[in-house]
Amino acid sequence: MNQWSGKSKGTLLGYKIFVYCIKKLGIRAAYSVLVFVAFYYFIASPASFKAMYAYFKRRQQFSSFKAVWAIYKNYFVFGQTILDRVAIGAGLRNEFTFDFDGIDILKQLLSEKKGGILISAHIGNFEIAEKFFSEIDLESQIHIVTIDQEHSVIKEYLASQNNDKPNVQFIYIKEDLSHIFEINDALSKNHLICFTGDRYVPQTKTMTGELLGKEALFPAGTFHIASRLKAPIAFVYVMKESNLHYHLYTRRAPEIKYRDAQAVLNAYTESVTQMLKRYPYQWFNYYDFWNDFKK
């Protein structure tokens, strides 16, 4: 598989089991189950194994042995991020500690009320970014655009477990393209729009950029919008460090010429590369991202 299907794995029953285990046993105890879960995916998912081996061996320049071990570690860390997401969504945020690196950039963008574009990637645990944003976005000026087509039931369940109502708003990409009107409405109010820039769905326009030394395809819409707004652009990531600790990074993009989408993409891929060099095990695109195996 050399492109993403547009859907993420996970069922409502699975999330209910996660919430029950975390609340009854604690987060650290729940992590122990991942030893077996990670091993299952290590031996039972040959397509993702092949893609991740290429990532560690070719992109990160790991030795063959280290690349194989890194795949298992990657599965384990990914499982931790899912459990963390469930725990935080179920109201256990105080179990975690956080570093805010560049939070002043976000506060400045919000105070200026000139709008802007935030771009992230499927690295670390971006799905919990709303918990960071909601602490500073008291007027609901940040909108997260997400492609996850299975959001509604799971998100409603997690919300029912948490008494805290986040200020962040979500824009869900829909087949009827109605999300475009929601994006335009938010931009007209000079709000911040947050995209992920590393995945695209079939039949959408793409652009080519170099990431970790090889060219890959990226969704064109994100970078065209960012280049045409005449508004600030920033890159944001939420990276897992020790077991219950996260680090939020916000970095301003350099000055970009109007309508130069390629320059935005190049700045983005350079930023993501820096993150992946620091956190090599937190790349969570389990498909042939660089078309290494395309016939």
Instruction: Please count the helical segments.
Output: 10
Strand count, sense and barrel status of the largest sheet are:
7 strands, mixed
Q: Would you tell me the overall average pLDDT?
A: 86
The SS-based structural class is alpha/beta
Q: What is the percent of helical residues?
A: 40-55%
Strand tally: 9
What is the beta-strand fraction?
15-25%
- Topology as H/E string? HHHHEHEHEHEHEEEHEEH
Rg, nearest Å: 19 Å
Ends apart, CA distance between termini: 11 Å
Strand line-up across the major sheet: 1-9-8-2-5-3-4
Approximate shape: globular
Low-confidence stretches: none
Helix-strand blueprint:
Elements: H1 12-25, H2 27-44, H3 46-59, H4 64-89, E1 97-101, H5 103-112, E2 116-120, H6 129-136, E3 142-146, H7 151-160, E4 169-172, H8 179-188, E5 192-196, E6 206-211, E7 214-219, H9 220-228, E8 233-240, E9 245-252, H10 261-278
Parallel strand pairs: 1-9, 2-5, 2-8, 3-4, 3-5
Antiparallel strand pairs: 6-7, 8-9
Helix pairs in contact: 1-2, 2-4, 3-4, 9-10
